[in-house]
Amino acid sequence: MDTSWLSVKVHPNAGKDVLVSTGPGRFEAWVKAKPVQGDANESIVSLIARAFKVSREQVRLVKGHHGRHKVFKVFG
Length: 76
Description:
Layout: E1 3-11, E2 18-23, E3 26-30, H1 39-52, E4 59-63, E5 69-75
Parallel strand pairs: 1-3
Antiparallel strand pairs: 1-5, 2-3, 4-5
């Protein structure tokens, strides 16, 4: 099973949902969701799953549950 580690800087409460690569394994994400009750985290998981063509269950938030800098693990 191939595993990727992603470092993501998050911009919640944005006007659109966008994931942009800023370097190898590094991304910035703009999401419409507010950082309330994990809504922004769920939106980022969806963005990553679509970008990597995997299911949402194959994307795990590993670090940064409450901050703007997050680390995700993508299985696939």
